[in-house]
Amino acid sequence: MPQMIFVNLPVKDLETSKSFYAKLGYSFNPQFSDDKTACLVISDTIFAMLLQEERFKDFTKKEIADAATSTEMILALSADSRERVDELADAALANGGSPANEPQDLGFMYGRSFQDPDHHIWEVVWMDPSTIEDQG
Q1: Nearest to residue 50, comparing CAs of 12, 5, 8?
Q2: What angle do CA 131, 112, 28 make, to 5 degrees?
Q3: Tens place of pLDDT for every residue, the chain, 136 residues?
Q4: Which of 53, 49, 54, 46 shows the shortest CA–CA distance to 18?
């Protein structure tokens, strides 16, 4: 079985977050969702658990970082084309997201970033497959 990742993200308003990610084309797994949690399905092996802040506090003794004023992490997703990078970033910005950093175009690699409604930073990056050496 391939290794999976479940990123846990605190959110202020679960319905706003669900609506934002649905508009980006993502779905949710109802089996792992309830009135305070939504399991965002990014791929077969990548999930983001969107947890209302009070629910998120059940999993940590630390304070929740205010992502509007500090960076707690940067989440990076691969894309299969430059066009997909633009589609995802444009959809995020059109549906409640905000800019995070300037686009990066290095020719062989292209990326854009945005902040979701809770200010978590997401990067979407495409890399030209012909420049990636076979690691096998």
Answers
A1: 8
A2: 105
A3: 899 999 999 999 999 999 999 999 999 999 999 999 999 999 999 999 999 999 999 999 999 999 999 998 999 999 999 999 999 999 999 999 999 999 999 999 999 999 999 999 999 999 998 887 655 5
A4: 49
Distance between CA 132 and CA 126 in Å, rounded?
11
> Of the candidates 83, 11, 86, 23, which has an alpha carbon nearest to the alpha carbon of residue 52?
11
Residues 6+ apart with CB under 8 A from 102: none
Joined tokens for residue 57:
């506090």
Give the total residue count for the chain.
136
